[in-house]
User: What shape does this take?
Amino acid sequence: MRSLAFAFVAIGMLLASAPAQAQIYDPSYPVCMHVYGEEMGDRMDCIFTSLAQCAASAFGLPATCLVNPYYAPARKQAPTRSYRRRVW
Assistant: This one.
């Protein structure tokens, strides 16, 4: 019984010690700008609502615009109907 518990603890410690990956894409915006180079630093800016907006910001910079593969648009709630009871 102790060896089984020890095995579970050892596996848990192994999984917990793995480095976590940071999310570089913000799922709130549909367009990202990848800035690269030593002067500007290598980064991903996901703060744009359109490719045109991103292209205007990237003009003159070592950057490219791309569609955010992790974009998750806000779900719209279905309209609710209010039912009124008829009084005869």
